[in-house]
């Protein structure tokens, strides 16, 4: 199992990860370290453990907010999908109605053409 070295709050940690996940793990550690550094800038030096716990809680809070937004978006997708299906059904019904009217018009034109054929004088020649 591959190992990577990451740095959080100025301390280096060796961590194992799955093959191919090294860059991802390093990126996650860099993001977490950025949270720690941001908190350190906001609250000052309050101890490594407390700072790490606060950063962890901040990250989990962001995750909870993202999950809430995902659920809201999923609900919107359901509503929009239903609306799209209703519009598609309406379009299909209108197309069927239009096709029927077009068929009626074609029959009427055929009737007119038939009458014209029957009443037209026959050319003599």
UniProtKB/TrEMBL annotation:
KW Cell division (keyword) present: yes
Alphabetized Pfam families for the sequence: ZapA
Coiled coil: 56-83
Compartment annotation: Cytoplasm
Keyword set, alphabetical order: Cell cycle, Cell division, Coiled coil, Cytoplasm, Septation
UniProt cross-references to Gene3D superfamilies, sorted A to Z: Cell division protein ZapA protomer, N-terminal domain
GO annotation, cellular component aspect: cell division site; cell septum; cytosol
Protein name: Cell division protein ZapA
Organism (species): Devosia litorisediminis
